[in-house]
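pinned: reference chain
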Amino acid sequence: MGGICKRLPVKCILLDCYDPAAEKDPIIRRLVEALAQVYEIQDTDQLVKDIMEREELASTCLGFGCALPHAHSPILKTTAIAAARLDPPLNFKAPDDEPVELVFLMVGPENSAVLHLKLLSKLVRLLHDAGFREELLKAETPEAFHQLICRKDE
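pinned: its structure tokens
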């Protein structure tokens, strides 16, 4: 399957992102741009559009200060993940009204529904662990953040 750790490059972990507009769209765009650099995604506008269309269907906030925006896109050849720790936390209009501090963006090709669901499910389980979320919030570097994910992804 290739787990979360394999699909989340260190270069795609953005720590303490600050968005003066306090909107999720610029954060999603920054995560897409990070993925584009690693995965050579040509049409970032289309990918952002695909993600935002999915966002309009239903909230991708998990609660506990976490969001997991995700989408399938015809422009992708592989499933990829990017992450951001937000400072300050942003209002993503979560069902629990908690501001979001951790965002994991997952995107993949249209024919990867099974893999997509497996990875989403695993991320949700990991992020429901309060201790794990706290560790991610305290990670000092993208490498340390990545190591925490990899340790849990085994």
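why pinned: Residues 4-153 form a domain with the Mannitol-specific EII; Chain A fold (CATH 3.40.930.10). The longest strand covers residues 80-90.
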